[in-house]
Amino acid sequence: MAFLEIKNYNKKFGELKVLKGIDLSIEKGEVVSIIGSSGSGKTTLLRCINFLETPDVGEMILDGELLFSDLESKKYTEKILRNKRLNFGLVFQSFNLFPQYNVLKNLTLAPTLLIKTKAKKLKEQLKGQGKKFLEIKKEIKEYVNSERERIEKEALILLEKVDLTEKKNSYPCELSGGQQQRVAIARALALKPKILCFDEPTSALDPELTAEVLRVIKSLKEGDRTMIIVTHEMGFAKSVSDKVVFMSEGIIAEQGSPKKLFTNPKTEALKNFLANTGDKEGN
User: Fold this and answer.
1) Among residues 44, 72, 83, 201, which is most buried (max CB within 10 A)?
2) Dihedral sign of CA atoms 161, 163, 166, 172 in order
């Protein structure tokens, strides 16, 4: 069984059918790039995978667990959806950093908020063990302090990974676009998602800044990380991907290895798309 399986995803907005029966399988550690013209459904598919949109029909299985089913979707509360989203990290094209917080705080905020939920569960466990109030209070305090220390250490390691350690106290407005996107990547990794997703991560950047972000994404591939990347950078898709998926008019028109798709496209839709990019071989 594949690590991620998407079965028959359909999604429409009003009368507009955006996804028309998407089936996609991704293996653990695989990097999959999704390419296609604007309006082909790429971003909608990514948003459905991340539970930012709800498919009208379909199923998603992640690591053997049924994560989404249209038969159950009406029962999903906001709390359930938040928990499901934690399986994925999504890096947006517009960075979406919190401007009022410095870089380190941007990375530690979400994991720190999760401590409260974990502390509540620990409190109930300690009560069940018959421990007294002061004992419970002491253990909870030690747990919270330990977790905060761990989160900060891990955030600093992530900043080193994206080569931004010296910017830990800087605010987003003090960073270049490329630096902000690298912070956004580190922030997505801070929650330890099973799959890291990118939605056109370089579309808001000039060529020089694009190169630095792409280098970081390539470095993540070396860590055997499962990634889904919606991109318009054909050369990058060719160099980083294990599999490339070409979407056209709401369907997956072709998929396969980068070499197969870029050097020997089968459909007219892909041939025309590559011709229009001016880069038939993804260089």
Assistant:
1) 201
2) negative
Three-state DSSP at 9 gives strand
Report phi then psi at 47, rounded to 5: -70, -35
Say how many Å lie between the first and final Cα of the chain, rounded.
33
75, with CB counted inside 10 A (0-12, 13-18, 19+), is exposed
In sequence order, what are the beta bridge partners of 174? none
pLDDT in tens, 228-268: 999 999 988 998 999 999 999 999 999 999 999 999 999 99
Q: Are 87 and 193 in contact, with CB atoms under 8 Å apart?
A: yes
Task: Check if the beta carbon of residue 241 is closer than 8 Å to that of residue 234.
Answer: no
pTM of the predicted model over 0.85:
yes
